[in-house]
Amino acid sequence: MDDSELESLRSKRMAQMQSELGGSQADNPEKQKQAEQQRQAVEDMKHSILTQVLNQAARARLNTLMIGKPEKGRMVENMLLRMAQSGQIVNKLGEDELIGLLEQVNSQMQSQERKTTVKFDRRRAALDDSDSDF
């Protein structure tokens, strides 16, 4: 292939990718602004639900968790949001209840980590000595 053929293939592929993504973001500042507003609305809704569900101490602990371990914090936050939306949480949760939920999440995460194990059978390796080929 020539350089001109490669360049034409690249430009066609780039145009195809941009059309699949709805054009580049620089071409659609309105869509970008709309998406940002939608993300902001979702964040505001999450914060309002968490404020209704958690008391001040529990909210502070969740924020501390989000700083230290963001993945685990998002997992707990999503769990609290699902519980609130399904009606499982009636009163505001205190710090002690949040700690109980965190312990449940820790036990679930540890049980998932324990599923993968590697065992070495050193006795078989010691008996199978390939150096003693008389």
Q: What is the strand and helix layout of this fold?
A:
Elements: H1 3-20, H2 29-53, H3 56-68, H4 70-86, H5 95-113, H6 122-127
Helix pairs in contact: 2-4, 3-4, 3-5
Describe this structure in words.
The protein is mainly α and 134 residues long. The chain is 73% helix and 0% strand. The protein is built from 6 helices and no strands. The protein has helices at residues 3-20, 29-53, 56-68, 70-86, 95-113, 122-127. Helix 3 packs antiparallel against helix 4 and helix 3 (56-68) runs parallel beside helix 5 (95-113). The model has no long low-confidence stretch (mean pLDDT 81).
Keywords:
single chain; about 130 residues; mainly alpha
H/E element sequence: HHHHHH
Helical content class = over 70%
Mean pLDDT: 81
Class computed from helices, strands and strand pairing: mainly alpha
Counted by DSSP, the helix tally is 6
Distance between the termini: 59 Å
How large a portion of the residues is in β-strands, by DSSP E? under 5%
- The whole-angstrom Rg is 27 Å
| Unreliable residue stretches | none
Number of strands: 0
Q: What profile does the largest beta sheet have?
A: none
Shape: flat
